[in-house]
Amino acid sequence: MAVTVSVAAESTNLTTVSAVKATLGVASRKFDAELDRLIAAATSAISVYVGHVYAKQTYVETVVGSGYPRLLLTNTPIVSVTSVLCDGTAVTDYEVEDPDSGFLYRAVGWSSAAWAGWNASPYSLPGTERPMFTVTYEGGYLLPGEPDANLPAHIEQACIETVVDWYRGGKRDDAVKSKSVGDLSITYKSPTAVQAEHDDFRLPAGARALLSRRIR
Questions:
Q1: Average pLDDT of 154-173?
Q2: Which of 116, 139, 162 is the last residue of a domain?
Q3: What is the pLDDT at residue 197?
Q4: Which three-class secondary structure state does DSSP give residue 199?
Q5: How many other C-beta atoms are found inside a 10 Å radius of the C-beta of residue 97?
Q6: Backbone angles phi, psi at 106, to 5 degrees
Q7: Cis bond upstream, residue 191 (ω within 30)
Q8: Which tens digit of pLDDT belongs to each residue from 88-128?
Q9: Contact at 8 Å (CB) between 22 and 174?
């Protein structure tokens, strides 16, 4: 299976500078450029963390059919399907059954291999599978700041919480576990603990909780 972007979104940012500033309680435009940079970075980190790009884009995806009536596409929700080709021949006897899950339904099934067995429990013959179906479709959400934005609120909130956490902690040493003012005393985290935080793409716990059901 392979997926390519044929028409990319102009922006993939999961929130806006104004939304972050409202959470921070600031009105000045002095740090808008920095917040915009943090939003882009947080969006990228979230996309890697969940394994999904949320912005609406046009994709070309090649899929191995299962022989069953449902074909699963990767980038959801499905907004529209431009074409489905089977070895270059148009397929039209299908419908979008579940946009959020990414299913295309076809009563005769999506077969891209030689099949054997009874209809109730067919199985593919090893070595015959190939990515026969090529689907061109739009998938994803309209993002905050766009007309008719429909990105789920908890995803935007995860991005806002990440940006706010990074912004407020911008001058903090990630390796410092604790410090005191009188008779200065600094305790450093173990290298393993610091690495573990970076392995989570430095997303704060609240953001990870909001995204927990979205990980692919």
A1: 87
A2: 139
A3: 45
A4: helix
A5: 15
A6: -140, 120
A7: no
A8: 899 999 999 999 999 999 999 998 654 444 454 555 555 55
A9: no
Could you tell me which of 80, 180, 196 has the C-alpha nearest to residue 140?
A: 80
Residue 179 contacts residue 185 (beta carbons within 8 Å): yes
Residue with tokens 């939304």: 19
pLDDT for res 198: 41
Range of the domain at 154: 2-54+144-214
Whole-number mean pLDDT of the chain? Answer: 83
DSSP state of 68: S
Nearest-Å Rg of the Cα atoms of the chain is: 23
Instruction: Clarify whether residues 49 and 69 are in a common domain.
Output: no
Q: At CA 107, angle to CA 106 and CA 110, rounded to 5? A: 50
**What would the pLDDT profile of 9-57 be if each residue is shown by its tens digit?**
999 999 999 999 999 999 999 999 999 999 999 999 999 999 999 999 9
The CA distance from 129 to 150, in Å, is 37
The answer to whether the CB of 91 falls within 8 A of the CB of 107 is no
How many independent structural domains does the chain possess? 2
In this structure, what token pair is assigned to residue 91? 């397929």
